[in-house]
Specification:
The complex is a heterodimer. Chain A is mainly alpha-helical. Chain A has 14 helices and no strands. In chain A, α5 packs across α6. The radius of gyration of chain A is 20 Å and the shape is globular. In chain B, strands 5, 6, 7, 8, 9 and 10 form a 6-stranded mixed beta sheet that branches. Chain B has a two-stranded parallel ribbon with strand order 1-2. Chain B has a two-stranded parallel sheet with strand order 3-4. Chain B folds into 2 domains: 135 residues, Nitrogenase molybdenum iron protein domain (Rossmann fold, 3-Layer(aba) Sandwich), CATH 3.40.50.1980; 124 residues, Nitrogenase molybdenum iron protein domain (Rossmann fold), CATH 3.40.50.1980. Chain B has 11 helices and 10 strands. The chains are: A mainly alpha, B alpha/beta. The interface between A and B is large, with 36 and 36 residues.
Chain lengths: 334, 266
């Protein structure tokens, strides 16, 4: 088990190292590495400013952002599936992504502020607002029952997407809808050092909380009564995990838009290798999520260069066939 | 319907034959304002089918195919069945009926066809001769200047590609499009490619939904793009979106682009 995690961690480092060398701009391997060692203070070679920027301001933050978002979505998805005992659960189940979309659409279309900061802020505010409404709608004396949370999440998601459509059709110019579609399909082009700076500690904190509750998560698989009998404070743990993962998802959506598939499918794929024990599953799914999204985003950047695709389109296009293959090859045991 | 179609009609002096207009992106050009004032405005966007039936037109002319979608006034075939003729600008036609690479001559052909339909062919020739004359005088010493045509989008910039209105204007002005290798009218690309191709001048398209000033602010704040030579020297040309869709305004865009690039001293 430790070996698997070590291999995956090595794979993640290699993936980052390899992905920064790939891109539409034709930079040699040595240039890319000189830039990085320059910034780490190891070398002080002369690299033209724009090439330096391509590597250090465009590619590296984006690759690290892909790793972060992939890791976060995979972890949130795994937790969400266990807590709600619903194999179809994903990080967006609680209305977070639709809320974020509504927030982003409001910024893009109604012109509430301009620039990327406003977009990120709008998406984050929308995500939090939607989640708050879901909790308020589903909560009963501070207890969140899984079925009610899921139903409330679906209902609020429908409401938010209806409102977003309304805003687009009512206020947007047809030409403006293009940029909205691009945003809604998910893109890591906005990942920069600032975003990484505040998202990384949050991811680490949430991941620590989740890992701390790995045993409790295992007991959830047997149902609430069993979990309670094993000494788990079901209500408190569920509340804590739902809120922290929703917060993290809100941050991720604000950075990258709603990237589908990763949070839904990767936990299932990882479970096929690790079994249901969350102490094994969580580290694996986080690393796998990071590696997966790095490579899918690299494909989105370069497959049709100099065109660029929204990464959310590719996660499903590449991920679903891989997942179907996995389902068929290892069929029968889940 | 739409800006370009409305202005082509006005440029041909056909305002008395217009039962109504709809969905303008911008004010009509000042020289047509007086004529336009006499034309009833049916809707700020597309009118409903019922509204259009109500004024019983003989002929419906639009710049974009979307005019004859569910969002607009409905299928063209339905109108033809009612005995109402329809016309969509060459540039707005579905892909298989559109010229592979839009040129000013396609715009002139549209003006001629509309003029022929309304029996004012000689006015079309005067108008076209005047436009050709204006283009001929502007394309001067801007050859070889490499231009990024930035239409919209900050995550993945949507740039003027090989074959649409932007490309037509750039080629008429005599400048080089850095994304002439991309298919279509506009295409999503990446900032990394923009940096690598390092344009001499950036065209900032000014539209009500995406202002040129906001684009400029984005460029100058962006960690990478602020160091692009064109951004550092503020080599921008601002063009109105309405002057970039095929119509009588293209000449204005050609003139503004050539003058802008020339004025930057390249």
């Amino acid at each position: 088990m430790v070996a698997v995690v070590v291999v995956l961690a090595g794979g993640l480092v290699l993936s980052v190292a390899a992905a920064v060398t790939v891109g539409p701009a034709d930079l040699s391997l040595s240039t890319v590495w000189l830039v990085i060692t320059n910034h780490l203070g190891l070398t002080s070679a002369d690299v033209p400013l724009l090439r330096d920027h391509i590597v250090w301001e465009l590619r590296l933050p984006r690759v690290l952002g892909a790793a972060l978002v992939g890791a976060g979505l995979a972890a949130c998805g795994a937790v969400m599936q266990t807590v709600t005992r619903n194999p179809l659960a994903d990080p967006y189940l609680l209305g977070v992504s639709s809320g974020a979309s509504l927030g982003a659409v409001a910024v893009l279309v109604l012109g509430l502020g301009t620039g990327t900061a406003a977009l990120t802020g709008g998406a984050f505010a929308g995500a939090l607002a939607a989640f708050a409404v879901v909790v308020a709608a589903a909560g009963h004396r501070a207890v969140l029952r899984p079925t009610r949370v899921v139903l409330a999440g679906v209902a609020i998601a429908q409401l938010c997407s209806a409102l977003a459509s309304f805003v687009i059709i009512w206020a947007a110019d047809p030409h403006a809808t293009h940029s909205i579609t691009f945003w809604l399909s998910g893109s890591l082009a906005r990942a920069d050092w600032a975003a990484l700076g505040w998202a990384t500690p949050l991811l680490a904190a949430v991941f620590a909380v989740i890992l701390w509750h790995a045993r409790a998560l295992n007991t959830f698989a047997f149902g609430e009564e069993a979990a309670a009998a094993l000494g788990v404070d079901v209500g408190r743990v569920r509340w804590l995990l739902l809120v922290t993962t929703a917060l993290l998802t809100a941050v991720l959506v604000a950075i990258s838009g709603a990237i589908g598939f990763v949070g839904l499918m990767l936990p299932h794929a990882a479970r096929r290798f690790t079994g249901p024990d969350h102490r094994r599953l969580l580290p694996v799914v986080v690393l796998a999520g990071a590696i997966f999204l790095i490579w899918v985003d690299t494909a989105a950047r370069t497959l049709f260069e100099p065109r660029e695709l929204p990464v959310g389109v590719l996660t499903a296009l590449l991920g679903v066939p891989a997942f179907v293959l996995l389902l068929r090859r290892r069929g029968g045991n889940a | 319907m739409n800006q370009s179609a409305t202005e082509i009609m006005l440029a041909l002096g056909l305002q008395d034959r217009m039962a109504g207009s709809a969905y303008l992106d911008d004010q009509v050009l000042p020289e047509y304002a007086a004529a336009y004032a006499k034309v009833p405005v049916l809707a700020t966007e597309y009118p409903s089918k019922e509204k259009l039936l109500d004024i019983a037109p003989d002929f419906v002319y639009a710049s974009f195919a979307s005019a004859f979608s569910d969002e607009g006034v409905g299928d063209r075939a339905d109108w033809q069945n009612l005995g109402v003729g329809t016309y969509i600008s060459t540039a707005g036609c579905p892909k298989d009926m559109r010229p592979a690479k839009l040129a000013m001559d396609d715009v002139f052909a549209e003006i001629r066809e509309i003029a022929a339909i309304f029996g004012v062919a000689e006015r079309a020739e005067t108008l076209i001769a005047d436009q050709k004359q204006r283009i001929a005088t502007v394309s001067a010493d801007v050859k070889g200047t490499r231009v990024l045509w930035w239409d919209a989008g900050t995550d993945a910039p949507s740039a003027g590609a090989c074959c649409g209105g932007p490309a037509m204007i750039m080629s008429a002005a005599g400048v080089t499009n850095i994304f002439a290798d991309l298919g279509g009218s506009w295409a999503d690309t990446s900032w990394e490619t923009v940096v690598e191709r390092n344009p001499d001048v950036i065209v900032l398209v000014d539209a009500s939904w995406d202002r040129a000033a906001a684009k400029q602010a984005f460029l100058e704040k962006h960690a990478t793009l602020k160091d692009l030579p064109a951004v550092m020297d503020k080599r921008y040309v601002v063009l109105d979106f309405s002057s970039t869709s095929a119509g009588v305004r293209n000449v204005l865009a050609v003139e503004a682009l050539a003058r802008g690039v020339g004025g930057l001293g390249n």
